[in-house]
Amino acid sequence: MAAFLEARPAMYAAFSAVEKASKERLYGCQMCGQCELPTAGYACPMTCPKQLRNGPCGGVSSDGRCEVHPDVRCVWVLAYERAEAAGRRGDFALLQQPVDHREQGRSSWINYWQGRDATMAVDAGVQIPLSATGGAVSS
Ligand code: SF4
Predict the structure, then answer these.
(1) Exposure of 12 by Cβ count < 10 A (0-12 exposed, 13-18 middle, 19+ buried)?
(2) pLDDT score of 128
(3) Ligand 1 atom 6: the closest Cα is on which residue?
(4) Which of 12, 36, 65, 84 sits a CA distance of 20 to 30 A from 110?
């Protein structure tokens, strides 16, 4: 189906518009084309003002506020809390490859089905010993 849509620009555009409309509303998706939602607690890292895809910058406050927009919680704090609640803390051991901006505006669903983002996240062997609140976490 992905190849079928890619071969038909009008249908591809319509499909991408549906993806954009649904994910923009739910996650603030900016159509980077390489979706990290499943390994980031379904918090879109592209909503970070610095568009960091491997965790927060050093400017996040101790109570989890964004350095750039202090009225907003850091998306990576949200991502960690959601992943932890879902028992997916191990996702944070994955190292996300740099985003390829040539994919901006393209469908991440189609890219996924085509296997183009299969190597986007690699196991970096990182241990995540603390909870988001700073307490020790049992494994
Ligand atoms: S496709 Fe990119 S911008 Fe859209 S939700 Fe996924 S990570 Fe965020």
Answers:
(1) middle
(2) 58
(3) 35
(4) 84
pTM, full prediction: 0.83
Compute CA 57 distance to the chain's CA centroid, rounded to the nearest angstrom. 15
Q: How much of the chain exceeds pLDDT 90, in percent?
A: 79
Pocket of ligand 1 (CB under 6 A): 23, 27, 29-32, 35-37, 44-46, 108
Question: What tokens appear for 117 in the block?
Answer: 């983002």
Beta strands in the chain (DSSP E): 94-96, 121-123
Candidate from 18, 22, 29, 54 with most ligand 1 atoms within 8 A of CB, to mutate: 29
- Between the CA of 138 and the centroid of ligand 1 the distance, in Å, is 31
A 10 A CB-CB count for 71 gives 6
Nearest to 91 by CA among 53, 131, 12, 38: 38
Q: Token pair of 9, please?
A: 């620009």
- Hey, what are 5's tokens? 């849509």
